[in-house]
Amino acid sequence: MPKQKATWKETNIAGLVFEPGSSAEYHTGTWRTLRPVHDMEHCTHCMLCWVYCPDSSIIVEDGRWMAFDYDHCKGCGICASVCPAKVKVHEHTGKEGKVIQMVLEQD
Amino acid sequence: MVVSTKMALDGAHAAARAMQQINPDVLAAYPITPQTAIVQTFSQYVADGEVDTEFIAVESEHAAMSACVGAAAAGGRVMTATAANGLALMWEIVYIAASMRLPIVMAVVNRALSAPLNIHCDHSDSMGAREAGWIQLYSETAQEAYDNLIQAVRIAEHPDLLLPVMVMQDGFITGHGLERMEVLEDSAVRDFIGTYKAKYSLLDIDHPITFGAWDMYDYYFEHKRQQTDAMSKAMKVIVDVGEEFGKISGRSYGIFDAYAMDDAELAIIVLSSTAGTARTSVKELRAEGVKIGLLKPRVFRPFPAQEFVDALKGVKAVAVLDRSISFGAMDGAGPLFLEVCAALFAAGLKTKVVNYIYGLGGRDIFPQHFAQVASDLQDITATGKVKSLVSYLGLRE
Fold this sequence. Notes:
The complex is a heterodimer. By secondary structure, chain A is mainly β. Chain A has helices spanning 48-52, 78-82; strands at residues 34-38, 58-61, 64-68, 86-87, 97-98, 100-104. The longest helix of chain A is centred in the middle third of the chain and has 5 residues, at 48-52. Chain B has two domains: 4-196 and 231-249, 3-Layer(aba) Sandwich (Rossmann fold); 257-393, Rossmann fold, CATH 3.40.50.920. By secondary structure, chain B is an alpha/beta fold. In chain B, the strands form three sheets. In chain B, strands 3-2-4-5-7-6-12 form a seven-stranded mixed sheet, sandwiched between helices. In chain B, strands 9-11-10-13-14-15 form a six-stranded mixed sheet, sandwiched between helices. Classes of the chains: A mainly beta, B alpha/beta.
């Protein structure tokens, strides 16, 4: 991975990448305009979001939902779309709806 | 000591002979008139076992340049050849070769771009590719095409550059015109170019590497700046390699071929084979007392702006001849003229410069055309007025 914010004199020639598997170091999360938020108390840990996430950005440990990988989540909203679990008052948004909801990144 | 053999070769066969002596790892090409003789002759060398090259007979020029990019990224010394519509079909990959900093060498036999269909010489093909990031060398003769191709390998592979090089010669006029020329010993060419060890190679499995990765707004700009920096270092490399080539061949190369320029008040600037006719005309005009000289640039990319300024200091009026049109440019001028004007303006020179479009689609140019140009330049110096910024030579008005 080239040095972050390298100048034109420092960056690798022609954008060559010298380390295999280094794409994880590129934070595609910076592209996000919508951000998924999760209500842990009402999550059923069904893992549908983990199955559908195209960027492997649902972090799971011991079969339980743990966190979003906000460094790589592009905010596509698929997790929120497929989430089957309902809440009356969401922990983050205060709104009735699904356990995963989308908010504006800037909020 | 220079050891060479005098031979009668046309430009295309001379280029093929240079490629045979260079013995590249990979040559991927598709035949197109008037370049066909290069690929055809080279494939004969392959069939006869005179080269070790992996020759890839591709299905199109787009595939040819794509195969070259892959082979060069794999670390090979790679060459190809094309002309006109073939170069146009390569277009996308021509840019990619330069941006990926792959030192591919390509022989271009200049031919008019369609339409209407025409197979004869003009420079619309390679001039269109002038912004692609390739170094461009123009050759007047078969000898120069041969010499430039050999030097191009050294220039392209120079560690400060890693830029692809196009070597032009004029279709049919040079490409198919037999000429007496000197061919170096195979060993002299191979010693001169040396062996090529790519710094980065896709085949180096101990050091895995990604070429041509996704490059966003946060890095693309820096990589373009690197490319232009490499181009800015190319002129010195071209001159150094040209001088060194002189030691093995007796023929040194620089940025220009200047003829009768020392005390010249008028100057003609023209690329490639037309410089031969121009030289003869300048000689005749000099005999008549006209203080005129000829400047034949060999290097168009990078553009030798400061060198033009130095060469034209003291000249009162300049005629730039273009064998292509930059459609929609100021007065429909040609690219060489526009670059010369930009260079002189930026240096604060107020030299009068006019443009002549000539030779499109293989239209012949004769000494009387140069007499006309000289007469126009004399009028400009006498009156201080330019009647026509862009004129046409040999066109039925």
